[in-house]
Amino acid sequence: MFLDKDIYLFDLDGTLLTIEVEEFLQHYFKALSVEFKDLCQNREEFIQALMQATKQMIKNQGQQTNRQVFMDKFSQLVGLAAADTEQLEVRFNNFYQNEFADLDQYFTIAREKPAAVINYLKNKGKRLVLATNPLFPPAGVKARLSWAGIDAADFELLTTYDNMSHAKPNPDYYREILTKIGAEPDDCLMIGNDPQEDGSATELGIELLLIEDFLIPRDKVDYPVSWQGSMAEFKRLIETKL
Ligand SMILES: [Mg+2]
Questions:
Q1: Ligand 1 center from residue 82 Cα (angstroms)
Q2: Which end of the chain is more exposed for a tag (fewer CB within 10 A), N or C?
Q3: 169 CA to middle of ligand 1, Å?
Q4: What spatial distance separates the first Cα and last Cα of the chain, rounded to whole Å?
């Protein structure tokens, strides 16, 4: 039975955190472009630079951290000198600790079930990994976890842009996690809402569970799914079987 696995890898956005990603991105980009309005002529230019630097992180093949890839590309696109890049990073970190952390006011977030699931698994002695696409600094990941009412300390690893050098859906992202936590695919379960980005874990032999409350439709993806249901059903499943 898949629930017997020792290590549970959880996606964040749309899985533990019940927000529509598109709606979230709109508020996120707006807040960012207000904060950094001095760097670009206009908001579109800024968002373009952000998107391109993010795409570069997603293509990262492991030579440097995602953070380095992002900073290099973003600085180049907005024409920053090296010293200014350091300053940029300080500003990004401040942003994620302050303005970003307040974005939850725009969303209705269902905290009860995901937080109960994490607590239950923790009490059962499961090892937990937050396998969120590592495109954010730690402050950005911890803020989103706190929106979900979940304590970052419950996870032995949070994947962030400064501790990873691959991103989803590259299966090497999951290999990098296994190396970091000293585990084999057969020890792990991946629980997510994206048949592609979370599903690519199955290329290594990690079993996939899909939480369908915010399921992302992917027509052309056919990764094997060991179980699929709502977060409420998943909560019932672990409470009866574990
Ligand atoms: Mg997701």
A1: 34
A2: N
A3: 11
A4: 10
